[in-house]
From TrEMBL:
<feature type="domain" description="Sacsin/Nov">
    <location>
        <begin position="13"/>
        <end position="242"/>
    </location>
</feature>
<dbReference type="InterPro" id="IPR052972">
    <property type="entry name" value="Sacsin_chaperone_reg"/>
</dbReference>
<dbReference type="GO" id="GO:0030544">
    <property type="term" value="F:Hsp70 protein binding"/>
</dbReference>
<dbReference type="InterPro" id="IPR058210">
    <property type="entry name" value="SACS/Nov_dom"/>
</dbReference>
<protein>
    <recommendedName>
        <fullName>Sacsin/Nov domain-containing protein</fullName>
    </recommendedName>
</protein>
<dbReference type="Pfam" id="PF25794">
    <property type="entry name" value="SACS"/>
</dbReference>
<dbReference type="InterPro" id="IPR036890">
    <property type="entry name" value="HATPase_C_sf"/>
</dbReference>
């Protein structure tokens, strides 16, 4: 008879522990915007828009009745990042592979949505993504889901709970019953309550902090910063309070030639 193990003591690390470590390696600040920008550029996007949405959105009903209390906390102020390229199946798969990147094998896709994307956890415990017909809500603490449920929002566009979730994307998404030809990443700002129980970061994300980061990014990046991008030639930065910036490269192809 083959020798049988009496127990299994495999070494594993929780998702939240990994994310906490990644956030230490990639601290908050302008680096978060740069990572999102680089990801979009790698995907071939020409346009990127950042928008600090200070509004709060309906908190009931939401998608999961069991997790309504948890999900309600993410319906407040958030940073939205839009680009005009869709999220591929590889991009969705890559989000499930922390620390890995399909970009190693395919530099023509949004493969950078691995480590770089995860810098957003400096500011949030639950980022969400809308692209094509999908809504993905990441839940690394698994407090209301198995970690990252993806929904077909077009098929569910008439459902009240889906309507309430999609309202939080309306700065860049005007129709909730049609697939989106682009990608929106929503980063709900971590509240004091969430910070108190978070296994990723115990820091509350203040609106003023993100406002300061956006303003500095607009000033420091400027028009010359776009010259280091392979594809992006237009960026807008805006917020509910009216602070708006536009960065563009005139005749970008000639300038980069």
């Amino acid at each position: 008879m083959p020798v049988q193990a009496v127990a299994q003591n495999a070494q594993r690390q929780s998702v939240t522990t990994t994310l906490k470590s990644l956030c230490c390696d990639y601290p908050a600040g302008g680096g978060v915007l740069h990572e999102l920008l680089q990801n979009a550029d790698d995907a071939g996007a020409q346009t990127v828009k950042f928008y600090l949405d200070l509004n709060s959105y309906p908190i009931e009903p939401l998608i999961s009745t069991e997790g309504d209390c948890e999900l309600q906390g993410y319906q407040g102020p958030a940073l939205l990042a839009y680009n005009n390229v869709i999220f591929t199946e590889n991009d969705f798969k890559n989000l499930s592979s922390l620390g890995k990147s399909f970009k190693l094998n395919d530099e023509t896709t949004t493969g950078g949505f691995g480590r770089g994307f995860n810098t957003v956890y400096n500011w949030t415990d639950s980022p969400a993504i809308v692209s094509r017909e999908f809504l993905l809500i990441l839940d690394p603490h698994e407090r209301w889901s198995r970690g990252g449920p993806r929904y077909d929002f077009v098929a569910s566009s008439k459902e009240p709970e889906m309507i309430n979730h999609l309202k939080a994307f309306q700065a860049f998404m005007k129709k909730s019953d049609e697939a989106l030809d682009g990608t929106i990443i929503r980063i709900p700002l971590r509240t004091a309550t969430q910070a108190a129980s978070s296994e990723i970061s115990n820091r509350e994300t203040m609106v003023s902090e993100v406002q300061d980061v956006l303003q500095k990014f607009a000033t420091e990046f400027g028009k010359s910063g776009l010259l280091f991008m392979k594809n992006i030639d237009y960026i807008t930065i805006g917020s509910t309070d009216g602070d708006n910036f536009e960065l563009s490269v005139v005749d970008a192809e000639d300038v980069r030639a």
